[in-house]
Amino acid sequence: MNIEDVIAIQDSLMKNKQDYDDERYMEFIERKRMRREEDISGVLLLNQQTKKLRGEAIDLNIKTKKTQLDEEWS
To answer: CA 49: distance to chain centroid?
Structure first.
């Protein structure tokens, strides 16, 4: 093995390390994007549930008020 072989091996090692690092970085970005999408989905679901609960509370309020008025007029 001569110096050119050693240099070629070092170059290959550096290239492989860079390829590995690039792949890990892309995986990190993908996980970060997926986490963000999950957070957004959670917020949207929470908003839907909140709207539903508000609607149910309003309906209950209307029914209660109607029952009170019916009792007053009876």
So the answer is: 17
The alpha carbon dihedral of 37, 42, 43, 44 has a sign of: positive
Of 59, 35, 39, which Cα lies nearest the Cα of 47? 39
The radius of gyration of the chain from alpha carbons, rounded to an integer in Å, stands at 32
**Which residue from 37, 31, 38 is spatially nearest to 23, judged by alpha carbons?**
31
pLDDT value, residue 36: 95
Q: H helices within 1-74, ranges in order? A: 3-73
pLDDT tens across 20-74, in order? Answer: 999 999 999 999 999 999 999 999 999 999 999 999 999 999 999 999 988 888 7
How far, in whole angstroms, is CA 24 from its chain's centroid?
20
